[in-house]
Amino acid sequence: MSEDLGPSPLAAGERNLSVQEARAAITRSLVPLPRRESTPVALHEAVGRVLAADVVSPIDVPAHDNSAMDGYAFAGGALAGGGPVVLRAAGAVYAGRPFAARVAGGQCVRIMTGAVMPEGTDTVVPLELAQVQGSPDQGEVRIAAGTIRPGENRRKRGEDLAAGKPALRAGRVLRPADVGLAASLGLTAVPVMRPLKVAIFSTGDEVVAPGAPLPPGCIYDSNRYALAAAVRRLGMEAIDLGLVRDDRAALAAVVERALGEADVVITSGGVSAGDADYTRDVLAAHGDVSFWKVAMRPGRPFAFGPLRRPPGAGAVDAAGKPAQGAAARTGDTSWLFALPGNPVAALVTFYAFVREALLVLAAATPEPLPQLSARSTAAIRKRPGRTEFQRAIVEPATEAAGGAPGWQVRLSGSQGAGVLRSMSEANALVVLGHEQGSVAAGEPVTVWLFEGLV
Question: What is each CA distance from 275 to 81, 271, 278, 362, in whole angstroms?
Fold first, then answer.
């Protein structure tokens, strides 16, 4: 499929947009969609969802002063003389079973990690630093001079989180540790935003659904499945609208269906200059879509913009009449991202442009794409003037990559835009910048890690 594209309305003449310019244009256009918050969801269903409101701690964390380790608890004032200290053990304290009595001067108690500090104690000496003669719970405990300072190894009540303070902020995409934190506060549910609804369809007469016979010259549709999986990994709802033939009426019908069901529409194929003109005509009839040439490999053809429901499709203005123009009211607009048809190019453009945009629209707090620097194990050819994304495998550095500690990266196979195997075998993308030239073996390169992207 051709990857040529007509002049971009955002570019001067025939100039390609850089990846940075395209990302900036998308960012300027988007704000969170006005959507109702959902009802609270149970914690076991919350991971990957966008928090709709701050989670405020109902308790102090920790709920009481407690020991940071196994040891002996005593009053730190006993250390004032600067010399060795001898104490008499007066029992043991276990987590979940507070010590009933006050610990008197000259005494200590054996204490377990997490146990409540008894009254009269404020310091814990670790077991390995205490010399014990006799019974661990009733014997003599010696602490050498300079072993510990007053107040050490005590976790104070509320030092991690005070009651009434936000534990998690609205807009956070909830991770496993966040779910655990909410549970540690005694919560069983959290308020989350309704998942963003993303409609996905593929175009082209040469594309066949998996499971069907494969005619000569045709290919199975992998893009819908890969893109839907990428959307679901973001905690969003993927709506599969299937395959669309190269037909004006069929495209118009699926676009109108998508507008009625989804906040975002993602297509693959049909955006190159060599594709049927009706693609642009149908999209232009529903909004202000810009067709771009982006200076990137793989990729280049890309379309983006708002698609608006026609009057009478459901949205009305304050007077009860069909809403017109820009998305002034909830539900008036769906955002279109039209990606290249080649399978790897579709995924790369999703990571480069769509992923962060979906998070913005979902009212999530976007985070920069996680990246690291790794030394290339081999030379990589590259010409300045475009951004290139190479499928690669990142691993701990070896002597072959320079001998120094850190990370090394090697390409995972053929870099053709239609070769999904090398994408599947990769765990990262090497990102070679717009003005960057060829890379020598051993030279550091920027890497996007897949596990941080998906």
Answer: 87, 7, 9, 32
Point out which residues pair with 42 in neighbouring strands: 189
Q: Give the C-alpha distances (Å, rounded to integers) separating 114 from 63, 92, 124, 161, 448.
A: 11, 13, 12, 16, 39
Lowest mean per-residue pLDDT among 176-190, 265-279, 340-354, 361-375: 265-279
Q: Residue written as tokens 């379309």?
A: 303
CB of 340 closer than 8 Å to CB of 272? yes
Which of these ranges, 142-146, 181-185, 191-195, 280-284, has the smallest mean pLDDT?
280-284
- Class of residue 386 by CB neighbours under 10 A (exposed 0-12, middle 13-18, buried 19+): buried
Q: Which amino acid belongs to residue 76?
A: G
Question: Do the beta carbons of residue 210 and residue 71 sit within 8 Å?
Answer: no
Q: How far apart are CA 275 and CA 259, in angstroms?
A: 23
SS3 271: coil
Count CB-CB contacts under 10 A for residue 123: 24
Q: How far apart are CA 245 and CA 266, in angstroms?
A: 16
Yes or no: say if 49 and 193 are a contact pair by the CB < 8 Å rule.
Answer: yes
The per-residue pLDDT for range 148-206, each reduced to its tens digit, is 999 999 999 999 999 999 999 999 999 999 999 999 999 999 999 999 999 999 988 88
**What phi and psi, each to the nearest 5 degrees, are found at residue 336?**
-100, 135
Which residues have CB under 8 Å from 65's CB, separation 6+? 116, 117, 122, 154, 155, 156, 157
The residue type at 277:
D
Domains, in order of start, for the chain: 19-36+194-361 (3.40.980.10), 41-61+159-190 (3.90.105.10), 66-155 (2.170.190.11), 371-453 (2.40.340.10)
For 164-175, b where at least 16 C-beta lie within 10 A, e where not — what string?
Answer: eeebbebbbbbe
Please give the torsion angle defined by the CA atoms of residues 285, 286, 287 and 291, in that order, rounded to the nearest 10 degrees: -70
Q: End-to-end distance of the chain based on CA atoms, in angstroms?
A: 27
- Could you report the per-residue pLDDT of 224-248, keeping only the tens digit for each? 999 999 999 999 999 999 999 888 8
**Cβ atoms of 67 and 124 closer than 8 Å:** yes
Query: What stretches of 204-358 adopt beta strand conformation (E)?
Result: 207-208, 219-220, 237-244, 264-268, 290-293, 296-297, 301-308, 333-339
Angle between helices 278-286 and 248-261 (to 10 degrees): 30
Find out whether the peptide bond into 176 is cis, omega within 30 degrees of 0. Answer: no
